[in-house]
Amino acid sequence: TSPPIQILVLLGGMPKSEFRATWIAVNSILKPLQLVILFTLKPKAFTSTQMPMYAVAIAFAWAGFLFGNWCHAQITETTARSLLLLLLSVSSGLLLLHAHVLVGVAGTAILVAAACGSLCREVPAV
Q1: What does DSSP assign to residue 42?
Q2: Rounded distance, CA 111 to CA 85, Å?
Q3: What is the pLDDT of residues 87-106, one digit of tens each?
Q4: Whose CB among 5, 18, 59, 111 lies 3.0–4.6 Å from 92's, allowing a Cys bridge?
């Protein structure tokens, strides 16, 4: 769901503070739910040999959250939109490299349309 939500943010011109608050709220609900579903449907996914990997992932998630809080105060709306566009470009490139060609081309076309729409819109003043 991440790239479609990010494209809607770019096209809709949602301010970065609203996007961050919405993103944190959505992930606070979805991630625990996804873990419960994973644990219920595939309990062998949580073996003791894989626990260090989960611990590293949780540590990086917290580090990203703290770094994001710091960045939020440091960057402007325009920079935030540019970084989001960069993130979507990287996602599109990875999709082209690793997915079926039709899916990659469709994803890239959607990204280009979102980028054009976003760049044509004026960033709302906060």
Answers
A1: -
A2: 8
A3: 777 777 777 777 666 666 67
A4: 111
